[in-house]
Automatic annotation (TrEMBL):
This is Glycosyltransferase subfamily 4-like N-terminal domain-containing protein. Gene3D superfamilies: Glycogen Phosphorylase B. It comes from the Bacteria.
């Protein structure tokens, strides 16, 4: 509390701070310390190294640390050292669990062990869905994912295509061309629509682009190879679809799902994560068996026959509530 009776701005070290998600949820009266510039990136964030905290004076300590992601490079021992130094320096830790299962790793054992260390030490635990909260220890707060698209294209909710956006084939994305051939043939037979497969033009996608492009003449695949899209271009491309497939092998929550729903596009999601629990309207998200092209086709066909559904709810009001919920967590754990 300031001498004039006002409340000082809370000083939060968010890891990261400049990400689209963390920028969205930040309360307007909270200051996030800027991310470091490490060759144009914010990771690996130096504050995740316990030694970094030994170089800070008491006057330079933040009111709290809010960890979202970016700790993949830490070992379990590194993670223990981090939470111990935060405890010793009296800096509360807030953890948002975006990924119960890390999409980048096949073996989840080390990721789960690090989560246990972080959650044991956290002054507050947050996750995005009730389904995820049931897998965490009691007391996890549910604060939903905010909107992703702030300026939707005019054609939002009027698309007719069936699409999948593979970008540069992240580690959790299905890369087997047979999956997409079976999926596309089945969907085309039922709907008459080709499967639009968007891929980045780079060495990581070359094998899949080549394999699928050979089938374009048959009419059931529409392979679109391109450079990375701007947000506006991406939103327009997604908005031209009635339904989009998330071709994930593992993971927990999805900003892509939120983007699609912001655009009034229905989404077929694998059963490996908590994606259905994110749905604003259960009719707008259909689950399929992870990795099963025939069941994925069933989900796409069902959603396509139904037609695209607009987002249900007030995204502006939801964003206000999300920011207020974070403000309350920050005030509580910092004693402010």
């Amino acid at each position: 509390m300031r001498p004039d009776g006002g409340v000082d701005t809370l000083d939060v070290l968010s890891i990261p701070a400049g990400h689209v998600y963390t920028e969205a949820v930040r309360p307007l009266d909270v200051r996030y310390r800027p991310d470091p510039d490490i060759d144009g990136n914010w990771w690996p964030h130096p504050a995740l190294d316990a030694a970094w905290w030994h170089t800070r004076s008491d006057a330079d300590l933040p009111d709290l640390v809010h960890l979202h992601f970016g700790f993949d490079h830490l070992s379990v021992a590194d993670t223990r050292a981090l939470v111990e130094v935060l405890r010793d320096r009296g800096v509360p830790l807030v953890v948002t669990v975006h990924d119960l299962d890390n999409p980048h790793f096949v073996d989840q054992s080390e990721h789960h062990a690090k989560l246990h260390v972080l959650l044991d030490a956290a002054a507050a635990r947050i996750t995005l869905t009730d389904a995820a909260a049931t897998r965490l220890r009691p007391g996890a707060r549910i604060i939903p994912h905010p909107r992703v698209v702030t300026h939707p294209p005019q054609a939002t909710g009027t698309g007719t295509g069936i699409g999948v956006f593979l970008k540069s084939l992240r580690a959790n994305v299905i890369t087997d061309p047979v999956f997409y051939r079976i999926l596309a043939r089945t969907v085309h037979r039922a709907t008459g629509e080709p499967l639009r497969v968007h891929l980045h033009e780079d060495s990581r996608t070359a094998h899949l682009t080549h394999a699928l492009s050979r089938d374009q003449a048959a009419g059931f695949l529409d392979v679109r190879s391109h450079t990375p899209m701007s947000d506006d271009t991406l939103h327009a491309a997604v908005g031209r679809c009635a339904v989009v497939l998330l071709p994930y092998l593992r993971g927990t929550h999805s900003g892509w799902l939120e983007m699609c729903r912001d655009l009034g596009v229905d989404v077929a999601v694998p059963d490996c994560g908590m994606y259905v629990a994110q749905a604003d309207d259960p009719r707008g998200v259909e689950e399929y068996i992870t990795g099963d092209p025939l069941d994925a086709a069933r989900a796409l066909i069902h959603l396509h026959e139904q037609g695209p559904l607009p987002y249900t709810g007030d995204r502006d009001r939801q964003l206000e509530d999300i920011r207020q919920a974070h403000r309350e967590v920050y005030r509580e754990v910092s004693g402010r």
